[in-house]
Amino acid sequence: MSKTLVLAEKPSVAKEIARVMGSHQQHKGYLEGPAYIVTWALGHLVGLAEPEDYDKQYQKWNLDDLPILPDRMRLKVLRESAHQYKTVQHLMKRSDVGALIVATDAAREGELLARWIIHMAGWKKSFQRLWISSQTDRAIREGFSKLRPGKEFDRLYESARCRAEADWMIGLNVTRALTCKFDAQLSAGRVQTPTLGMIMQREQEIRSFRSQDYHTLQIDLGAFQAQWRGKQGDGRLFEAPQVQQLQQKLEGKQASIRELKRSERQEPHPLAYDLTELQRDANRRYGFSAKHTSNVLQKLYEQHKLVTYPRTDSRYLSSDMTDTLKERLTSVAVGPYAPLARPLLRGALNVTRRIVDDSKVSDHHAIIPTEETVLLNRLTADERKLYDLIARRFISLFYPAARYDIVQVTIEAAGEIFHAKGVTVKEQGWKIVYGEQWQDDEDEEQESSSDHTERVDAVQSLPELKQGESHMIQRTLVRNGRTLPPKRYTEAALLSRMEKHGLGTPATRADIIEKLVSSDTIERKGNSLHPTGKGTQLIELVSPQLRTPELTARWEAELERIARGQGKPEPFLQGIREMAASLVSGVKASEVEYKPHNLSHSHCPDCGARMLEKKSKRGKFLICPSEDCGYRRSAEKQLANRRCPQCHKKMEIKDGKAGKYVQCLSCGITEVLNKDGARPVKKREQQKLVKQFEQKEEFGSNLGDLLKAALQNKSDEA
To answer: For residue range 182-204, what is the model confidence (pLDDT) as tens digits?
Structure first.
């Protein structure tokens, strides 16, 4: 009997498919059953060949050899996973294997890695595609009953192939050119360089910003207050004499209500999550990096089977899911979500176009809970936080809009215009799902206090007002402020900018940020991203075309056209070849000088060169910049006055996520330092200090002190 081979992307997914489809016999690298043989990749088993695979002379990096632009890109089996590739290749050539099902991730990258394996292994027959959005038993069975022809995804594969080859040609050539030209480890890429460019542009805006003092003026009308605004709508006054003149002008004057606008505002529920929006929210609320969010979300999807496919760019659901929504809501209705979800289950769900819209669903729908009942006690703290975001967002989809009554008042006094605003909540609607947790998203990437007017029409409770009525100005209130520079990007804000300019995909943006951090071109300080000295210089070394997101955005748009069948691969790749050659020529002709930002004062004992200081997970270390030398050692130790309580040696000062700490490397004892670098005061020392500085004070005149005095007198008399 002929068997069907199933190729999954990773072992964990393969084991779940094998369990559901009855393949229980375990072998090295695959699971077998009566009808199905289930094997797996380990991510990419096959990749694009390296330059030295085309010609051995490329093994040594040389500026004169660039650009390296093969006419036809070759593939190679990746050495680190060659053993698993041999297993997959052997299974594809087994005589009893008559059909193939590709069950890699239902996305562009999953399609690419499967096609490269198929091509390298020499599979000539047609194949079918398993395209599912969750890992539940039900989803797997339904997916196997609705397998799709592999050729339906040829355009998706071509788009993925073009992306990979473009990254190879641009990234490899420009990185080699920069490294050879400036004799330093410098990397550039089609997406990472314009991302660094945006961070550097914001840094330049901050550095060139000049802060100014300003004042705002309010009038107190007894029952409410109103804010002054100029003719351009700005409520800030930059000249102190102007403020004093206004105060004198308004003193004792009547203010009349010139205009009164009442309106009802409806705020609909937010859309369901796609990956980028979830990464933004997790960063804003919990400080999660985009990469950490992706990793935790992958566990919720694969291990716990609680959420649908994570790497999606859609925020809507498809119409074929409508019948499953109540079941998904039932699975969520546990613990803190039960009182929110159960009222919805009593009647028909209000499914609108803000929830279900086939025209806005591409490869995958939005991230929502699956039909699996959640057991919250089995989730880690971070998994529970992320699941909470997804569950509350899903429940909120079926609640009505929040409704407000808004009153906007325009007031005239002494020829000046003032404004006041009042809001009354009529119906909380979907906001009841979040309680006090909900906060309106700030448009962080555009926020700039230099040209940002203070919230002059701050919301307040207004009394009943009528147009034309007058109120006496009881006093004027002046507040002082200072203009602030634009904020540095957080990961949430950077993800928004990357999405806006089409840099990367939801699946790759987190890795791009991590690559910039690991290559020491940016660094995290708290929740903000700062360019390093290396990043500041690097952005000046690359072509201006590659610094800005416009060029990469055009490439991304063309890749999307190829995926939809509206564009062709070869013209796109020809354009990439020409651009790579142009970028390399620009580096060769550059006269800019690069100075390593991390030169230490230590010299290499072997060749005498000044060593570079670098960071790793285990702390700082020094490395010789000379390629022929390669000498490295740990950086100089910074010793504290604190001694180890066990061996009594001086402890080392180290930097951690929570701040500085001291550690004895031989004993493993660790203590947290205070912000000023001193060790924490122990309890016994605290008691000594209290006794030393304790002073008996006379009783005061408040009621508590008088009662204490009375009780003390009573005890003395007794």
So the answer is: 988 899 999 999 999 999 999 99
Nearest to 101 by CA among 23, 165, 47: 23
Tokens 């009942």 -> residue: 373
Share of the chain above pLDDT 70, in %: 89
Residue among 136, 140, 48 nearest 103 (CA): 140
Annotated active-site residue 309? The verdict is: yes
Which residue among 36, 214, 309, 337 is the active-site one? 309
Taken in order 111, 112, 115, 120, is the CA torsion positive or negative?
A: negative
The token pair at 129 is 């595609």
DSSP result, 277-326: HHHHHHHHHH---HHHHHHHHHHHHHTS--B--SS----SB-GGGGGGHH
What residues are paired with 471 via a beta bridge?
255
Provide the mean pLDDT of the chain: 88
- Partners of 670 in the β-ladder: 663
Give the 3-state secondary structure of residue 621: strand
What pLDDT was estimated at residue 619?
66
Check if the beta carbon of residue 505 is closer than 8 Å to that of residue 313. Answer: yes
C-alpha pair distances (Å), 79 with each of 76, 117, 182: 9, 14, 31
pTM: 0.80
Which of the four pLDDT bands, split at 50, 70 and 90, describes residue 683?
Answer: low
* Pairing mode, strands 148-149 and 128-129: antiparallel
C-alpha distances in Å from residue 108, one per residue of 74, 262, 312, 363, 513: 20, 50, 11, 9, 20
pLDDT given at position 680: 55
Determine phi and psi for 122, rounding to 5 degrees: 80, 30
Distance of CA 454 to the CA centre of its chain: 28
Query: What would the pLDDT profile of 493-522 be if each residue is shown by its tens digit?
Result: 999 999 999 888 888 999 999 999 988 899
* CA–CA distance, 140 with 131 (Å, rounded to integer): 9
Say if residue 67 is preceded by a cis peptide, omega within 30 of 0: yes
125-129: average pLDDT: 95
Instruction: Name residues whose C-beta falls within 8 Å of residue 572's C-beta, 6 or more positions apart in sequence.
Output: 162, 166, 555, 558, 559, 562
